[in-house]
TrEMBL record:
Pathways per UniProt: Amino-acid biosynthesis; D-alanine biosynthesis; D-alanine from L-alanine: step 1/1
Active site, renumbered: K39 (proton acceptor), Y268 (proton acceptor)
The protein's name: Alanine racemase
Record organism: Gordonia iterans
Organism superkingdom: Bacteria
Binding residues annotated for substrate, in chain numbering: R137, M316
């Protein structure tokens, strides 16, 4: 997905003021500052513009999964603290250390590779101990913790690493009352105590993802580590929107309008047959652009103040909406909103969460999946800079 200042046929407009607003909401709820998670190209919103907007709004630090994502932020001139936590064997820790990336380690093997890189580069590596306190995914496994703690103490004593932070990731953060949340925090505290006994004192602890940052201030510790909420999606839809504003609006230009007679099938397989003479519009948005094919027949698009149902199969490049017998006042070149926030005083626009609910997934997958021919555009505070530099 590229960036253009003009409005492309398929456009993901990202409101950087919404990003800033959301950082403020999270900071207030959590009562601590924010590590804005900008992995996966800022959940599809563009990592560099989002990072800048979040930092301007008071986010203290940034987080990414891959080191390459962190290095790309550095290459764009961002000098904030960045922690990166997903590394495969052969990860370029030399580059990470040279770029002053905080490397979160998930095993004694990763620590050994970081120590070797620190010796090669002659630079003390800043590291975070990412402990698997119950997620069962990445993070230092329980049975490898004693070894890792021992190795950490030794590496710190010889100046190869500086342990800056302890982190863990919640398995059930979106169930605020799940006892596992508290247990995971307790296990992380116990791991920190182990390190203190070995003479290593972590400076910071962070645990909370978006749902926990908004609902469990008791787990906020020194920093919270939200992704989804930064982008304005609710991490617990049953509990409302928490005052967050979705940052992304996906719009498509009406490419073609045509009359079709009653009985005419629409799109592959003729899964929708016009029940009456009607007018349909073709939009240049398809599954190659991140509009899930499973959404066929299960979404509405908004043009002007009216909602029109999607009809027939969503194709690779295009989809069709039914404008009704009178054509709904829609003209070729009008813009259809596929999802986004609802502007004040206007009819409700579908959200990424609506799409997710319709097909049994989560909005994380919808917004981070916008791709292909979709072009990102930036509006709001900082948009001028973003339009010039984003990739
Ligand atoms: C993705 C991720 C986050 C952010 O999670 P959200 O649910 O989007 O807030 C935080 N920490 C880690 C380790 C992650 O992988």
């Amino acid at each position: 997905m590229t960036v253009s200042t003009s409005t492309a046929p398929l456009t993901a407009t990202v409101d950087l003021s919404a990003i800033a607003h959301n950082v403020g909401v999270i900071t207030e709820c959590a009562g601590t500052s924010v590590i804005a998670v900008v992995k996966a190209n800022g959940y599809g919103h563009g990592a560099v513009p989002v990072a800048r907007a979040a930092l301007r709004a008071g986010a203290a630090e940034l987080g990414t999964a891959h080191l390459a994502e962190a290095l790309a932020l550095r290459a764009a001139g961002i000098d904030a603290h960045i922690t990166s936590w997903l590394h495969a064997p052969g990860a370029d820790f030399d580059a990470a250390i040279t770029a002053d990336i905080d490397i979160a380690i998930s095993s004694p093997r990763q620590l050994a590779a970081v120590v070797a890189a620190a010796r090669r580069t002659g630079t003390t590596a800043t590291v975070t101990a990412k402990v698997d306190t119950g997620l069962g995914r990445s993070g230092i496994a329980l049975d490898e913790w004693p070894q890792t703690a021992h190795d950490l103490a030794q590496a710190q004593a010889e100046g190869a690493v500086r342990l800056r932070a302890m982190m863990c990731h919640l398995a059930c953060g979106d169930e605020p009352d799940n006892p596992l949340n508290t247990e995971q925090a307790q296990r992380l505290d116990a791991a920190a105590d182990d390190l203190r006994r070995l003479g290593v004192v972590p400076e910071l602890t962070h645990i909370a993802n978006s749902p926990a940052a908004l609902t469990r201030p008791d787990l906020a510790r020194d920093l919270v580590r939200p992704g989804l909420a930064v982008y304005g999606c609710s991490p617990i839809p049953e509990q409302g929107d928490f005052g967050l504003i979705p940052a992304m609006t996906l719009t498509a230009e009406v490419a073609l309008i045509k009359r079709i007679p009653a009985g005419q099938g629409v799109s592959y397989g003729h899964r929708w047959i016009a029940p009456r003479d009607t007018v349909v519009a073709v939009l240049p948005a398809g599954y190659a652009d991140g509009v899930p094919r499973l959404l066929s027949g299960r979404f509405d698009a908004v043009v002007g103040d009216r909602r029109f149902p999607g009809v027939g199969r969503i194709c690779m490049d295009q989809l069709v909406i039914d404008l009704g017998p009178d054509g709904g006042g829609v003209r070729e070149g009008d813009r259809a909103v596929l999802f986004g926030p609802t502007p004040a005083g206007r009819p409700r626009v579908p959200t990424a969460a609506d799409w997710a609910a319709a097909i049994g997934t989560i909005d994380y997958e919808i917004v981070s999946g916008v791709r292909g021919r979709a072009v990102r555009r930036y509006v709001g505070d900082g948009a001028d800079e973003a339009e010039g530099t984003a990739s």
